[in-house]
């Protein structure tokens, strides 16, 4: 009898790293990787960072070179969408009618941009940024327009705004909340990024939504806001968040909440299916149950644990959430997890006005997250503070002369 393959559904970073991890951990059986895009797996951060800025070649985004999949005996099926998972027969059904049986299955279906449902939203030159062709199109647009409207002041929106301003484009950012990045950072640090962009000439409009886009024969021409005001623009980028692609998981009868519910080993409610990346809502040994973050680091690191579980191992995913951004002359790394109401103090070390500092979010005197801005090589001690769970002395924490491993409250 032919051995049933291990199957990976999802052709992004998590899917590619899952295939890599399975081979590295000794799996030498048949392996199928199915992705719905025509391009082989690539990383998404360059799409709004170096590649969009023109500082990196297109090929730099790909996870592996083209030959890697053949060399590692991975059956790579591009431009193929899985439309159903039949857990009873251990079969995935493709949109071309073909089926693939599986012994174990890794779900890594990622997220899709949330789309605006307003008049004019389907006009030409209204962009969303998720896939490589989206970045190609936006890159061409930034090089050819004078005025850009960015709807949404999250990470994608602000990175696009920075790229466009760097290219000399006039940029307006609309954010429905009173500050950009209010959810992930809280008001204290959200103000830092608001100031960064206004200092670089971005017009920042907050606390207002979009009623409709206006359009002419050539495409979008601007927007009418909820307060009745108008903004003229030659192109629009919408960055209002993403939704995890859960249709396959839900249709297969897996337990689904805000994502595919998995344990610390990334095991779903089905013993033969694991999940990784944006869709995984995981139990975390330190942070607790139900942790789902749409960060590049999860797609990079979770697949090694998923592969271990597929092979019968007992590895758990205990990495702290991590993300980074580069905007203008500001580089930032963030470790930990901040939720609204999940902290009671913010402590700064360094020069906030000069945007060269570390910020620490505290709950009951313990560090729950840290962000280093234009300060480098401090990730490990920040993570150690979070993992320790020990109370810290805030005066010491704020003093750059005190090493971070000496700031505990004694």
TrEMBL record:
One of its GO terms (molecular function) is oxidoreductase activity, acting on NAD(P)H. Residues 322-406 form the Reductase C-terminal domain. One of its GO terms (cellular component) is cytoplasm. Keywords: FAD, Flavoprotein, Oxidoreductase. The keyword Cell division does not apply. Residues 6-302 form the FAD/NAD(P)-binding domain. It holds the Pfam family Reductase_C. The keyword Flavoprotein applies. This is NAD(P)/FAD-dependent oxidoreductase. It comes from Jiangella rhizosphaerae. The lineage of its organism: Bacteria, Bacillati, Actinomycetota, Actinomycetes, Jiangellales.
């Amino acid at each position: 009898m032919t051995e049933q393959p291990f199957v990976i559904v999802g052709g992004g970073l998590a899917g590619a790293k899952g295939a890599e991890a399975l081979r590295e951990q000794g799996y030498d059986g048949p392996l199928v990787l199915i992705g719905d895009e025509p391009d082989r797996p690539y990383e998404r951060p360059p799409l709004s960072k170096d590649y969009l800025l023109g500082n990196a070649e297109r090929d730099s985004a790909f996870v592996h070179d083209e030959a890697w999949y053949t060399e590692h005996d991975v059956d790579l099926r591009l431009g193929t969408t899985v439309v159903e998972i039949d857990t009873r027969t251990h079969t995935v059904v493709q949109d071309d009618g073909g089926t693939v049986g599986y012994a174990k299955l890794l779900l890594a279906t990622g997220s899709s941009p949330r789309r605006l449902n307003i008049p004019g939203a389907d006009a030409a030159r209204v962009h969303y940024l998720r896939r490589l062709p989206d970045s190609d199109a936006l890159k061409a647009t930034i090089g050819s327009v004078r005025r850009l409207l960015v709807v949404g002041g999250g990470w994608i929106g602000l990175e696009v705004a920075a790229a466009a301003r760097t290219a000399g484009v006039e940029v307006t950012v609309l954010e429905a909340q009173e500050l950009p990045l209010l959810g992930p950072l809280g008001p204290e640090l959200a103000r830092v990024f608001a100031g960064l962009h206004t200092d670089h000439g971005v017009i920042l409009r907050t606390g207002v939504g979009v009623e409709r886009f206006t359009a002419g024969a050539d495409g979008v021409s601007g927007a009418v806001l909820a307060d009745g005001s108008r903004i003229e623009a030659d192109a629009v980028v919408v960055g209002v968040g993403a939704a995890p692609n859960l249709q396959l998981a839900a249709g297969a009868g897996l337990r689904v909440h805000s994502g595919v519910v998995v344990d610390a080993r990334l095991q779903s409610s089905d013993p033969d299916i694991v999940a990784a990346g944006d869709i995984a809502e995981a139990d975390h040994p330190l942070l607790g149950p139900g942790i789902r973050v749409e960060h590049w680091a999860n797609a990079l690191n979770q697949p090694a644990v998923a592969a271990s579980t597929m092979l019968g191992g007992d590895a758990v995913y205990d990495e702290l959430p991590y993300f980074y951004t580069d905007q203008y002359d500001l580089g930032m790394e963030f470790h930990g997890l901040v939720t609204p109401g999940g902290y009671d103090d913010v402590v700064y070390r360094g020069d906030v006005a000069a945007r060269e500092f570390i910020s620490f979010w505290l709950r009951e005197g313990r560090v729950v997250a840290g962000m280093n801005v234009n300060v480098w090589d401090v990730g490990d001690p920040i993570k150690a503070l979070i993992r320790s769970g020990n109370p810290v002395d805030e005066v010491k924490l704020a003093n750059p002369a005190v090493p971070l491993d000496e700031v505990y409250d004694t």
